[in-house]
Design a protein that fits this description.
Layout: E1 24-28, H1 32-38, H2 43-63, E2 68-75, H3 83-106, E3 110-114, H4 122-135, E4 142-149, H5 151-167, H6 178-182, E5 195-198, E6 217-219, H7 230-242
Parallel strand pairs: 1-2, 1-5, 2-4, 3-4, 5-6
Helix pairs in contact: 1-2, 2-3, 3-4
Bound molecules: farnesyl diphosphate.
Amino acid sequence: MGIFKKTVRRAVMVREDFQKLPRHVAIIMDGNGRWAKKHKLNVAMGHRQGVETLREVIRHTDDLKIEALTIYAFSTENWNRSKEEVGALMQLILDFFKSEIDELDEKNVRILILGDKALFPDKQREVLIEAENRTGGNTGLTLNICLNYGGRAELVRAAKAIAQDVKDGKLNVNDVNEQTISDRLYTTGQPDVDLMIRTSGEMRLSNFLLYQCAYAEFLFPKVLWPDFSVQDYDEALMAYGGRERRFGGRLR
Ligand code: FPP
């Protein structure tokens, strides 16, 4: 089997195969660089192959009728990578939307960009805004794509919005509660993250969805993101189904 695509198709699961599925899955797609190195390719090829995995994961998430999928595509720290790598990621953003937007829209997927779009070059920013506008009224899977995203920056943004509302007399300080904060995050109106997956064996949250992951179950499959298959995804979803979630309470 070649390195580029898993030509052997194994059975994938359908919604009815699961006793319990998460409503919101979040994924840190880690290991593209190591995959490229392992195959003596440049890092851009690792990210390109990572996008192939992403396509399959989005399709499967939609087939399973999971409500929300959040993917970490570019963090606020990723700007510090080499000019070549950042350039390759910028190109992948354009390529991804060009090739996927029609199918995603047809499938009723709503795309949201989580993060500050202001720092992106004009071309990328326009494509991102266009994708959000075009799919904004869709009612199927919500696909949150984190771009120039940081969890702390998101909380700072929410704190500023709350402070402004208090200053403007729209909000009483005593009425500020957890919901007040949730309502001012990029993910407003969406369920909290139920399952967080980080591939490549790294066990860190890396400033991802800090507030939304408060009660998430975490899974850290060792496989590098470009090799993460739909079957690996099914396995993670099955493992989630087997977890006992207590939300701070006790088992009865
Ligand atoms: C982490 O791997 C991955 C990233 C920093 C970028 C992930 C981006 C994509 C899969 C493509 C972009 C997405 C869209 C929607 C166009 P790493 O490079 O840190 O891996 P390493 O730890 O092995 O070096």
